[in-house]
């Protein structure tokens, strides 16, 4: 597991950067979630893309097996989702309306309380970590297309 976490460092830096941008857009710059910019810095898209790239390159250059690539995908998924959970909790604790606690971000029609939001984020932690494992597997399959050197 320590190896997976070491390999995930560059990804973790990107996740923190994306999270900081998403956290600040609405309260500090007045950007509304609905205007479409939220999807440009999606942590879920970053995670799925990252897991696929990790799967491909770890297969070719670190000789990871399919299972190892999937575990790496799960690690990336958990890092991103825990960041989302923490940013959501921080949004509520600070009393800020951010891209982490807006109803659209939570797939809700109206604002929800912190408890319900964190429960929804808990579901996302499980589902999106599984999706990241699948993305890691897809990347691993595509890794066969990379040149040896």
Can you characterise this structure?
By secondary structure, the protein is mainly α. It has one domain (2-22, 42-145). 73% of the residues lie in helices and 0% in strands. The chain contains six helices and no strands. It has helices at residues 2-7, 9-29, 37-40, 43-62, 66-94, 114-142. The protein is elongated, with a radius of gyration of 16 Å. The relative contact order is 0.19. The mean pLDDT is 92.
Q: Mind describing the biggest β-sheet?
A: none
Gyration radius (Cα, Å) is 16 Å
Mean pLDDT: 92
The first-to-last residue Cα distance is 27 Å
Helix content: over 70%
Task: Count helical runs.
Answer: 6
Range of strand content: under 5%
SSE succession: HHHHHH
Mass-distribution shape? elongated
Q: Kindly name the structural category.
A: mainly alpha
Unreliable sequence segments: none
What oligomeric assembly is this protein in? single chain
Question: Strand tally, please?
Answer: 0
Number of domains: 1
Summarize the model shown:
The chain has helices at 2-7, 9-29, 37-40, 43-62, 66-94, 114-142. With 149 residues, it is mainly α. Helix 2 packs antiparallel against helix 4 (43-62) and helix 4 (43-62) runs parallel beside helix 6 (114-142).
């Amino acid at each position: 597991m320590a190896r997976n976490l070491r390999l995930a460092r560059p990804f973790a830096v990107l996740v923190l950067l994306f999270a900081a941008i998403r956290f600040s857009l609405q309260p500090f710059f007045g950007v509304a979630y609905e205007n479409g910019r939220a999807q440009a810095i999606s942590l879920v898209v970053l995670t799925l893309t990252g897991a696929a790239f990790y799967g491909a390159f770890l297969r070719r250059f670190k000789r990871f097996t399919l299972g190892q690539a999937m575990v790496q995908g799960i690690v990336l998924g958990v890092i991103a989702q825990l960041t989302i959970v923490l940013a959501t909790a921080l949004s509520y604790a600070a009393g800020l309306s951010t891209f982490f606690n807006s109803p659209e971000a939570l797939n809700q029609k109206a604002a929800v309380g912190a408890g319900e939001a964190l429960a929804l984020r808990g579901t996302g932690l499980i589902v999106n970590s599984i999706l990241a494992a699948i993305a890691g597997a897809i990347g691993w399959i595509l890794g066969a297309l990379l040149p040896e050197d």
